[in-house]
Design goal:
This protein is an alpha/beta fold. The protein is 35% helix and 10% strand. Strand 2, helix 5 and strand 3 form a beta-alpha-beta unit. Helix 1 crosses helix 3 and helix 2 runs parallel beside helix 3. It binds thiamine diphosphate (TPP) and magnesium ion.
Length: 300
């Protein structure tokens, strides 16, 4: 852990969001390959969302991760932890070099987020379906105590098949939690799913929520629903601004972010098989070139 300035994230404080995301994707690929563990497609699909949140949206203090007024962030799709860590490291929660410990028994960076290990995590997750309910509790607690922070929860589209998501969705609207924001990473793929039957165009597995069903289900629970291109920073930031403006007439907000699983790498994009595969050395090298990372491991 030499040479790392906490808060600098190794690539300089002025790096733009696109560069941060490119570097974050590289850190994911490099770390999954070297640790021989972890998921990869989901972390890459959500990378632009995390970069936007952690560098422009969330009201946080990485040097004071227990600050009571901080915005809360819950990664309900906890299997994507390595992507969140790649952004938290850049934001200064811990040195980038610590990523090398990922998924070791003694690491703060567990394969799924463990809030008892790493300051800055607001929930321990990994069993899909639970994070939104935790967010409901935190958002309700904030309101009861008169605390001004907001609570953000990121879910996967496959995860939204879990019944507990919809119990929490109902509770959130009945409680009028306008301080609660969900973001769904709608990448159209999950781990398995039904074999392709009808769709000729979509990878090798059926997408979890075809068409606009997810939008209509959230709307029917009386949530405010925003649709964005989850790889376009302007769209993401505009939606986040609307989500946190507090003018939702007492409704929680969900951002449905259309993304591509494996985003950024030609050989991974939209491929179900890359949900949790370990890249070979050749694939790591190809990833480095495609992401524009120089031989020292930094964005060129
Ligand atoms: C309750 C539960 N069931 C199954 C799993 C195993 N699992 C891990 S990731 C995953 C697929 C999730 O798909 P999605 O929510 O769409 O995530 P993404 O596409 O972003 O990876 C599954 C089934 C789990 N972690 N928790
Ligand atoms: Mg998915």
């Amino acid at each position: 852990m030499t040479g790392v300035v906490v808060g600098d994230g190794e690539i300089g404080p002025d790096a733009d969001l696109a560069t941060r995301a490119r570097y974050g994707r590289w850190l994911v690929v490099r770390t999954v390959a070297s640790s021989g563990a972890g998921h990869i497609g989901g972390p890459l699909s959500a990378m632009d969302l995390w970069v936007a949140l952690y560098f422009r949206v969330l009201n946080i203090r990485p040097a004071d991760p227990a600050w009571p007024h901080r915005d809360r962030f819950i990664l309900s799709k906890g299997h994507s932890a390595i992507g969140l860590y790649a952004v938290m490291a850049q934001r200064g929660y811990f040195p980038v070099d610590e990523l090398a410990t990922f998924d070791r028994g003694d690491s703060r960076l567990q394969g799924h987020p463990d809030m008892t290990c790493l300051p800055g995590l607001d929930a321990s997750t990994g069993s899909l379906g639970q994070g939104l309910a935790v967010g409901v509790g935190i958002a309700l607690g904030a309101r009861l105590r008169g605390l001004p922070f907001r609570t953000w929860v990121m879910l996967g589209d496959g995860e939204c098949q879990e019944g507990m998501v919809w119990e929490a969705t109902l509770a959130a609207s009945r409680l009028g939690l306008e301080n609660l924001m969900a973001i769904v990473d709608v990448n159209g793929l999950q781990q398995y799913g039904l074999p392709k039957v009808l769709e000729a165009s979509r990878g090798d597995r059926r997408e979890p929520w075809p068409g606009d069903q997810l939008r209509r289900v959230f709307q029917s629970f009386d949530w405010r629903v925003l649709d964005v291109d989850g790889h376009d920073f302007d769209s993401i930031l505009a939606a986040c601004d609307i989500a946190r403006d507090g003018k939702s007439a007492g409704r929680p907000t969900v951002i449905l972010a259309r993304t591509i699983k494996g985003r950024g790498l030609s050989f991974m994009e939209g491929r179900h098989a890359w949900h949790a595969r370990i890249p070979t050395p050749d694939e790591v090298e190809q990833a480095r070139l495609e992401l524009g990372i120089d031989e020292s491991g930094r964005p060129a």
